[in-house]
Amino acid sequence: MAPLHRGKFVVQWTASAEQDLTSVIDYIAVDDPKKAIANANSPSWVLIGTQACTAGGVTKIFTSNYTLPAGSLQAIRGNFRFGGSQSSCSTGSYDDHDDLIFAVGPAVPDSTPPTTSITAPANGGSVSGTIPVNANASDNIGVVKVQFYVDGSTLLGTDTAPPYSINWNTTGIANGNHNLTSKAYDGANNVGTSAPVSVTVNNSACGTTSQLLLNPGFESGSVNWSSSAGVITNSASRPAHTGAWKAWLNGNGTANTQFAWQQITIPANACSAKLTFWLRIDTAETTTVVHDRLLVRILNTSGIVVSTLATYSNLNQNLTFTKKTFDLLGFKGQTIRVRFQGTEDASKQTSSVIDDTAVNITK
Question: What is the pTM of this model?
Answer without folding.
Answer: 0.49
